[in-house]
Amino acid sequence: MRSKGRAAAVGGDAQRMLERMKALGLPGTEAKRLAARYPAQSILDAFRYTETRQADAKQALLEQPAAYFRKALEQGYGRREDQAPQAPSRKSISTSRPSLSSIGARRPVPTSAS
């Protein structure tokens, strides 16, 4: 049994999404697999991302729009801001190392060669 959030829209909307995926060059079986695996909103976001890229005259022509769409869908490219995963803030990531004195270690005392 599929949850409503994971399954693509039912009926005509699902059929239109499948047709759009096929128009990009995806085989029907691949389109059905992606529609079953991803929520409808993610699919729509990936369409928008791919179509925006295709329409950008400043960039080279997409040689494989189906592969571009698939990657956009799998990687979540084109997700709206309210859906994007939150990256940890820089403040929460500590890259500093403790000093030797803070952990009670002593620096070696240089010996003079005589």
TrEMBL record:
Residues 88-103 have a biased composition (Low complexity). It comes from the Bacteria. Residues 73-83 have a biased composition (Basic and acidic residues). Residues 73-114 are annotated as: Disordered. This is Uncharacterized protein.
